[in-house]
What we know:
By secondary structure, the chain is α+β, with helices and mostly antiparallel strands. Helices cover 65% and strands 8% of the residues.
Amino acid sequence: MIRLLAALLLVVATALPLAAEDGAIPPEWTGVQQRATAVLQSPIASEEALNTLRDTLDGWRARFDEARGANAGRIATLRGEIEALGPVPVEGESEPAEVADLRADLRRRLDELLVPQRAAEAAYNAANGLIDETDERIEQMRSEALFRQDALPINPVAWPPALLAVSGWFSDLSVQVTAPFLSKGGRASLTDEGLRIGLLLVVAALLILRSGRWLNAARDRLTPIEATSPLARLGLLGVSVVRLLLPVVGLVALTRSLVVAGAEGPLIDLIVILVPVMGGIVLAANWLGGQAFPPRPDTPSLLPVGEARRREGRLHALTLGVTFALGLAVQAVADTDAAVMDARGVLHFAITLVTGLTLLRLGQLLLSEGRSARDEGEAGIWAQVLRMLGRALLVVGVVGPALIAVGFVNLGTAIVWPTVLSLGLLVLIGVLQNVVFDFYAAITRRTEMARDALAPTLVAFLLAVAAVPAFALIWGVRWHTLTEWWRTFLDGFSIGAFTLSPANLLTFAAVFALGFLATRLVRGVLRTSVLPKTKLDVGGTNAILSGTSYIGITVAALLAVTMAGIDLSGLAIVAGALSVGLGFGLQNIVQNFVSGIILLIERPIKLGDWVAVGGIEGFVREISVRSTRIETFDRQDVIVPNADLIAGVVTNNTLGDMSGRVLIPVGVAYGTDTRKVEAILREIVEAHPMVMLNPAPVITFEGFGADSLDFLCRAVLRDVLWKVIVRSEINHAIAERFAAEGIEIPFAQRDVWLRNPEALRGTPPRPVGGTPARQGDPQETLEPGEPIDIPDRPDPPEMDHP
């Protein structure tokens, strides 16, 4: 029998897909369409009924969406075969009969396969349209309910009925709770279940009243090292979470004892769920307040609030938790009791009035702390957040209760309660982000650097982004609306014939990343294993490595575009139009790029070359696509566009090899034997180990200078980079040898004629008429035209300028 049922289920499960492949729409879909149309046209359809209808339509849409891709492989194959036959002959032309028959057969088979796809496409569009109509109807109903005005809660006439409704509900609850104790059967049940009831009550009492004391010992051991140990902070957080959950479990045990005792009824069923939820909300609000405003002064606060105001912040958080739990209870009870539903406005007004005052006080606290941080020069992002959040709470604290007071109960509660939930979610995000940073610090053992590290910062940012749907749900966005947005996001959007979707982007990123890593791997193998075994110089090696990188990245980009299914043919016209404008705007960039390619191919310069271009002289340190980096002898990096290296005049001192010529001028006194000087200089130059003997050094007698006989030493060095050092060493050797040979190196002498010698002594000019000099004036004088020898002043010491 079981096997027969399994076979029947298998047949039923496969019937619909087979019918879809045959092009037939399941008959059940017609009935669903008719029922959906009737519900949408009914003016009394409830939101719950519409949501149920939408779920049904969503399931059918998913089935049709899957059916749209049926036989996709075979369809692609047939289309390829048809394209291989060539274009259809135009009018007046013919093709061989065999080809025509084959083309007709392929088209017939293709049309047969396209029938289920087209049917599924039509059904998909129908389901999608019905879903859109359902969403519009639901949003319209929600909007009408949101802006509906009820009786004024501030009217004193409405207060006595509200009190009677609440007292009546509690009376009904007490009747259902005490019913097991009043009936004989209930007392018998209590006797039978007494042990279970007692155990549940004991567990509830212990968890609610004593669980905090049990965990205090663990908290006290971790508190002293909290400031320095991230593991201690994580442990304290875990202890606080357990301390939050245990009383909730106790409330569950307490309400469960009522059920075991035999209490039953709709109110009992509501209380069994509502009491643990309300207790959890209050405890969670108290826990979040402790995290945002920690009681210990040495614990850093989640919000930058001074220690003096933390106690007030915790009190406000607890008050918000209590009022939110009461508001939730009022709404839950009102959904099951008509009298409480009529009194809902008065009850919500009383609760939201306290909530609004609490939000006002909390907003003033945050606003004052934000202003204090700004006045103290700590106007960071948190100070701005505090001020903005404080202003928002002030507005909500006034507007929400005011709207409820004038009868807009739904609108007022839709502003106040989401604000409270948003505050709790913000604090929870901050707590989770701190957990990420502490976990990273515990793993890496870098407590001080954890908050500046990139990895935990990215995770914290992703947590904030992931909370966006939660904020949307809090502020009234339906879950179905979020899923519809997500489906639209996954489907992507079309740009011409190209559809851009997250799947395409992920495929492109993954393929390009793999291609890039493969390029880096090949480049590393060439650099470390292959090219060192060749006879290529450094420039050739770098050119091959750069070319490999460019080719690999280009191939990776092309493969990524192909694998992602991106069709760029539709962008050809746009690219052609843009290329004209970009050709003018990016002319220099393109010119530098082409010049960089030419530099890599021709290699007129390479890494490590000593070049001079445009008044800049130094060593080539990097050749990129757009520019070349030259390091001057002053250790300054100069970025030279590649176009300047191609179009301008470049002096490369090390292009062919490292050899280069050095020039050393030498002057001797008149009367010195020039042949002897030439021989000495030749001997000194040829003796230096860096001087090449082929070609041999050349010593020339340049001429008769104003103060000396001028010689010039020309020598080719093995390594031109030693040019300055070799010149210095040869000059030292010349000075030592000339001193030993008695050859004088002349220096310039000058005769200075003073036309006003009195200015040298600082004496006033002699007055006309021969007025005698005053007593105390120097008596030594110089006649005009009398020569005086003044020694040359030593040159000032060289100063290093920045």
